[in-house]
Write a structure and sequence with these properties.
This protein is an all-alpha fold. It has a domain of 33 residues. Helix content is 82%, strand content 0%. The protein is flat.
């Protein structure tokens, strides 16, 4: 290779490939260990009590079951929370629907908006 330009191109190519490899390795490292709120807890117990791999399997099984139960309880409370909010949100939703209809949409499209809004009220789970 004669001149400096071919060496610059080679150096740029090597730098690009090194960056690409580092990025791939970084993504793989993040994918291998899923983040769980209880992951740090499991690692702490493993280190503190020197748990065997067999005991770690049991611990992870228990923590997964615990996490499922917590998620179930949270979902139940979210439903009650949303139901409690509904009376306060209904007038707010209606007001902003009216503002969108009257201030954003051209007059020729307002009837179609009313039809869509009526369908959403009749079928609230469809969206």
């Amino acid at each position: 290779m004669r001149g400096v330009r071919p060496w610059i191109v080679v150096l740029m190519g090597v730098a690009f490939l090194a960056g690409l490899a580092a990025g791939v390795l970084s993504v793989r490292a993040q994918e291998e260990e899923p983040q769980s709120p209880l992951g740090d807890y499991a690692r702490l117990l493993e280190q503190e009590f020197h748990l065997s791999p067999e005991r770690m399997v049991h611990l992870r099984t228990l923590l997964a079951a615990y996490e499922e139960e917590v998620n179930r309880v949270v979902r139940e409370h979210e439903a009650a929370y949303r139901a409690a909010l509904e009376p306060d949100l209904r007038p707010l939703n209606e007001e902003y629907d009216r503002l969108v209809r009257d201030l954003v949409l051209p007059p020729g499209q307002r009837r179609h908006f009313d039809e869509l809004a009526a369908g959403m009220i009749l079928n609230p789970k469809s969206n």
